[in-house]
Amino acid sequence: MFIQQLFNGVMLGSTYALIAMAFTLLMGILNMLNFAIGEVFMLGAIFCLTFIKLGLSIYWAFPLAVLCTGGVNLVIERFSFRPLRHAPPLVPLLSTIGFSILLQNSAENFFGSERAQFPPGMAPIDFQFGPILVSSTQILILLAAILFMISLDLFIQHTRTGRGMRAVAESSETASILGVESNRIVAITFFVTGVFAGASGILFGLSFSIVSPFMGIEPGIKGIAAMIVGGMGNLRGAIVGGMFIGIIEVLSVAYFGAPAKDFAVYGALFIALVLRPQGILGTLQAERERI
Amino acid sequence: MNQKPILALTSVSKNFGGVLAVHDLTFQIPRDGVYGLIGPNGAGKTTVFNLITGVYPSSTGSIKTGCQELTRMKPFQITRIGVARTFQTIRLFKSLTTLEHVRVAQRPYSGEKGSEAAGRRGRERNFKKEADEILELLGLGNVRSSQAITLPYGTQRKVEIARALAIQPKLLLLDEPAAGLNTHETADLLKTLGKIRRLGITLLIIEHDMRIIMEICDHIFVLNFGQLIAEGSPDAIRHNDQVIGAYLGKED
Amino acid sequence: MSSYFLDLLTSVGINILLALSVYAPLATGQLSVGNAGFMAVGAYVSAILTVHLHWPLFPALVVGGLAAGIIGLLVGFPALRIRGIFLAMVTLAFGEIVRNFFMNFLTSLTGGAYGFRGIGSTPVSLTWIWGWVFFFLVFFFFLTRSRIGLIMLATHDDDTVSELIGVNVVILKVGSFGLGAMIAGIAGGLYAHYYLYIEPEFFNVWNSIHMVLFVILGGMMTFWGGILGAIIFTFLPEMLRFLHDWRGAFFGAVIIGLMIARPSGLITREILRLDFWLSRRKGNKA
């Protein structure tokens, strides 16, 4: 039973990890929190479902939807980041809160506020791996999540663009002196983050059979929580943090019932932040930098 | 009590996770006068200031002013007993005017010269008068209502000093007060330091500008790699081989 | 006066209090995105006192506020070591914990997720609400002009240096955190006793975020900013009725636009300072 719950926790955790990676990438490179990622997440599912309803198969709908969410994030970059580059960090954050409200309301109006589901054409088949019951959807999701995580990690570490991103993270000025085109890097960062968030939303919608304009609120907050708990600006930390939160959530529901869910997650976040503000994989800013 | 030195460091060390920034440092400053703290970059000078003012807890050793042990105190307590400082990079309050910088640092506790006897109303007037005096002393009278961070660099440095003076310190720590000043402003600074000395405030100055150090300091401490390598009068230091060796190859 | 207009004035009053509750800690540099939680504490505590223990209104409100304030002090201490986005997340988490608490505990007293009905024995009138608003307005007016106000501003700008000029930053920050919590608690008590019904779902994250928006859009450097923000954003949805379901989208767009055009908010310290400068003769300010 415990193993099953642990597995479920990992499943949930990987969606949180994906969102957390979206937050972290932006945070690490541009020191900016895009609060609207939760809504981009939601739009991924909504777009995908809409495309499916329009007749496309999921193999077309999925990539098309995530391309769209990447585009949405580019729009956010255009209005919340580029004009506010030199403002204190609170300002772009607020702007993305504005986007969050805008996107949610717009989705509500275009899509309707009822919960919907992905069509059951992708009926899951259950497998039994020892003590664990797993559905085919879940396997796909886990594989997709792992694939995304690994590819992003490799991308950042080994490609030229990835190195450019890391350079910009260190110092935008130095990066441009070295010939890195900051603007291009920023745009790519936003696009990739948008793709990730959208993909995560689709996987979430498939996994938990829910598509609604409000599905992004809690995962968004939990994604931020995962980013912080795992260690800010650290991609691997985001994965760890996401898993941590997913597992806590599932285990608390399994052993204490549904009402305990938020308690456990937010309680853990609260304690984690108070005890170890830099997160699991984060490093404390050196004492000597204070003055 | 008055026989005790105004600042006494004894075997002070500071460890930053393996890096020993300050190592077994011992020196004393008796009352009154202007003292210099010099040494190459990275010698640990600002760290010493941070240790004295409580920004860093010291790893070992004792730091005393008079009879009071500073290593147990929090920064605000250390300030309240009369130890004030300025910073290497100017750190003004971005929302405050020049006058407000002085007012905010004036506190209704007694500094060395606090007037506890005066009644409340009397104290209020006293503060205004003192603030005006400090601004006059530093020539900041005509920019009292300006937002301090909009002022020219040299003037901002003066505002920082004014803020420190408002605390009514007995010991004032200045961290590179001449950095970034032109010749005219530097001469002005020297005059100001003289005025502060005449007020009876003890000064400990970190500086790279040797003209200032040699000109105004009564006694100089030289730091290198977190240790005291020499101390003495300006003349003695000028001719000290170890000091020259420490600075060799570095620009003045 | 029509009931609709009464409700509107009530909302404005309560929102002003909530804006002030966010302003208090923000004035010392602490962003709290969890004040809906403190509002909930005040609402539930005062409601339990009037409904189950038959307390009169005023003491119940005060105790509700104090309860919220004390919890605020308790949260304020660990919050000292955390800054910026981390603090925002901690307070957000805290708000959610409170909401969950009232959803799952004390349900026999409060009805839990189904809501607390019938807080009707000691209802609150408009005068009550605006009495409290006026009280806190006066309070903040004098606080801002006092030495403490100046110290708060300095601490907001740079708390490390503030400590080095003798300010007991711990007391200042924790105190302002507790003050904000208390004000939110009183607003919660007033809310409960006006609408006569509360449920945990109401005291959610978005509520907290809205309070923060009042202050930041109105201008976070002075307490007037939050007041203006509260007034505008209470009336705005009403004035934009013609937009029907698109009000949210409009609100979002306004925020985005405002951050580009005037990120410091509507009321800044400079504006107020100019006014003072023009209307005074000799500089006997400060």
Describe this structure in words.
The complex is a heterotrimer of chains A (291), B (252) and C (286). Chain A has helices at residues 2-30, 37-53, 58-81, 90-111, 136-158, 160-170, 172-177, 182-208, 217-230, 235-256, 260-275, and strands spanning 126-129, 132-135. Chain A has 291 residues and is mainly alpha-helical. Chain A has one domain. In chain A, helix 1 runs antiparallel to helix 10 and helix 9 (217-230) crosses helix 10 (235-256). Mean pLDDT of chain A is 81; it is low at 285-291. Chain B is an alpha/beta fold and 252 residues long. In chain B, the strands form 2 sheets. In chain B, strands 6-7-8-3-9-10 form a 6-stranded mixed sheet, sandwiched between helices. Chain B has a 4-stranded antiparallel sheet with strand order 2-1-4-5, covered by helices on one side. In chain B, strand 1 (7-16) and strand 2 form a beta hairpin. In chain B, helix 3 runs parallel beside helix 5 and helix 4 (120-137) packs antiparallel against helix 5. The radius of gyration of chain B is 18 Å and the shape is globular. Chain B starts with 6 loop residues before the first strand and ends in a 5-residue tail after the last helix. Chains in contact: A-B, A-C, B-C.
| Helix vs. strand class of chain B | alpha/beta
Using the CA coordinates, give the radius of gyration of chain B: 18 Å
Shape of chain C: globular
CATH names the topology of the domain at 1-77 and 207-252 in chain B as Rossmann fold
What form of chain B results from the Cα inertia axes? globular
Number of helix segments of chain C? 13
Q: Could you write a compact summary of the structure shown?
A:
Chain A has 291 residues and is mostly helical. Helix content of chain A is 73%, strand content 3%.
Give descriptors for this structure.
heterotrimer, A: 291 residues, mainly alpha, two-stranded antiparallel sheet, 11 helices, 2 strands, C: 286 residues, disordered C terminus
